[in-house]
Model the fold of this input.
Amino acid sequence: MIQITPQMRILVCVEPVDFRRGIDGLCSMCRRILGVDPFCGALFIFRSKARTSLRILAYDGQGFWMCHKRLSRGRISQWPCSTRIDAFELQSLIWNFQPPQGAVKFFKKLS
Done:
C-alpha cells in the first residue's frame, strides 16, 4: 500500500499522457520528461488526454505500484502547472477538489 506523507517527493507530468502505456512506458516518461529516475522513491502523477483518469506510479524498493483512478462522472477540472506538488495538493487531485486558495497559483484550470 502507498502511504502519502508530507515529506514525500511528489512529481507531476504537466502534459497529458497516453494511458495505453503501462508501467515501463510511464517509467520512460519519468526519465525523459521529468528527468528523474523512477526508482528514486518519489510518487509520479499522470493524467489522461481525455481528463477522466489519473495514474500514480511509485517504487517501494521491491517493485512498482501503479494506481489508476477513473472518474465516474465529469473530468479533471484543475491540473498543476508545476512539476512538484505537496501531499495536500495530491489529495485534492485524487478527489478532484478545487485547489485550496494558497495553491491556486500552482494549478491551472483546464478547458
Q: What stands out?
A: The chain has one domain: 10-109. Strands lie at 10-12, 43-47, 53-59, 64-70, 78-80, 84-85, 107-109.
